[in-house]
Design brief:
Strand order of the largest sheet: 3-2-4-1-5
Shape: globular
Structural class: alpha/beta
Strand content: 15-25%
CATH class: Alpha Beta
Radius of gyration: 14 Å
CATH superfamily: Peptidoglycan recognition protein-like
Bound molecules: zinc ion
Order of helices and strands: EHEEEHEH
CATH topology: Lysozyme-like
Largest sheet: 5 strands, mixed
């Protein structure tokens, strides 16, 4: 059965600038945390390429209390050199995230964009996703 998508929730991987992170890496981290597999549906790499994590049909594991009706999108980065939360998105990531979110909004009309920090006391995704994408 198709899930009803009401929210698109943006995350960061909480990794260092220029640290290369793959879907496989996140898959390993999330399995270590007891999830079946990577908790996000999409991951945007440093080079701006989009990679599929968990299939959309499957409920995510990325935002407590909001997984059933959301899609989790994660960009690689989110920490500065000393490990503090920071918007480290590359120009390519910014461009692609915007495009991906616009596409998802077209596919799931009525879905509202949030950042993880709108629902949890976390810095993730280290920028205001709600206001940045409100025009989409
Ligand atoms: Zn998050």
């Amino acid at each position: 059965m198709q899930r009803k998508i009401k929210e698109i929730i943006v995350h960061c991987s909480a990794t260092f600038p220029e640290q290369v992170v793959t879907v496989n890496d996140i898959d390993q981290w999330h399995k270590q945390r007891g999830f079946d597999c990577i908790g996000y549906h999409y991951v945007v790499y440093l080079d701006g390429t989009i990679h599929v994590g968990r299939p959309i049909e499957k409920e995510g594991a990325h935002c407590k209390g909001h997984n059933a009706n959301s899609i989790g999108v994660c960009y690689v980065g989110g920490l500065n050199k000393v490990g503090k939360p920071c918007d480290t998105r590359t120009d390519k990531q910014k461009k692609v995230l915007r495009c991906l979110i616009a596409t998802l909004k077209a596919e799931y009309p009525g879905a509202v964009v949030y950042g993880h920090s709108d629902f949890a006391s976390k810095a993730c995704p280290c920028f205001n996703a709600k206001s940045e994408y409100q025009d989409l």
